[in-house]
Amino acid sequence: MWTLPPLFGWSSYDVEGIASNCALAWHREDWNSRSYHLSLFVWCFLLPLALILWSYGKLIYVLKQVAKSGIAQSNSTQRAETQVTKTVVIMILAFLLSWVPYAAFALTRVVNPEVIMGPQIQSIPMYMAKTGTVYNPVIYICLNKQYREKVVTSLACLQKCSISKYSRSRSLATALKRLQGNQVSCNTNRVAPEGGLNISKNLLLPNINYCSDKSFSE
């Protein structure tokens, strides 16, 4: 939703960093652009960060309360709680790692547009923000046994399907090649040889029924 306003006049897009793709025109100093950048900073960074901290903080709080309630817990339950806490902390750190540099860069350009940064320096936080979409799946796969098992099963199934498809394609190609060879042999057998020699087609196509069993002679 927040990608649409620049298309209708609220701020604009421009080539970013090393000119590999487009992004918001952070260098523009007019209030129209700066107001959009500030709104984007609040709604797309501060608010999601606050929701993440509140949600995961609430989850950890509930787990701690259950632990303090005196209810006997098995070792597997305690390990699960520890695993959840570790996953939450790592996910928050991954979010901060991917988006804090970009948010700091954007806020710096809004507050002080005269700050000069080279294209290479500008590209670093932009690419870090874009890689944020792959962090969560990697974290779940590394820290959660069930996710790892599902991924391994899916990859094995995909590999099996690929091998089966390749085998079918290769078998079809081999069959077509044999059919073409049989047709050439049939056509060669139908030509009357010079010098009165008799050539039996059975020498060329012993297993093909659609070739005549008669030999041709001059």
TrEMBL record:
User: How does this protein sit in the membrane?
Assistant: Multi-pass membrane protein
Organism encoding this protein = Podarcis lilfordi (Lilford's wall lizard)
Q: What is this protein called?
A: Parapinopsinparapinopsin-like
Matching entries from InterPro entries are given as: GPCR_opsins, GPCR_Rhodpsn, GPCR_Rhodpsn_7TM, Retinal_BS
UniProt cross-references to SUPFAM superfamilies, sorted A to Z: Family A G protein-coupled receptor-like
Q: Which GO terms describe its cellular component?
A: membrane
Q: Mind telling me which Gene3D superfamilies this protein's record contains?
A: Rhodopsin 7-helix transmembrane proteins
Q: Where in the cell is it found?
A: Membrane
Name the Gene Ontology molecular function terms of this record: G protein-coupled receptor activity; photoreceptor activity
Domain G-protein coupled receptors family 1 profile as annotated: residue spans = 1-140
- Is Phosphoprotein among this UniProt entry's keywords? no
* Keyword annotations from UniProtKB, A to Z: Chromophore, G-protein coupled receptor, Membrane, Photoreceptor protein, Receptor, Retinal protein, Sensory transduction, Transducer, Transmembrane, Transmembrane helix
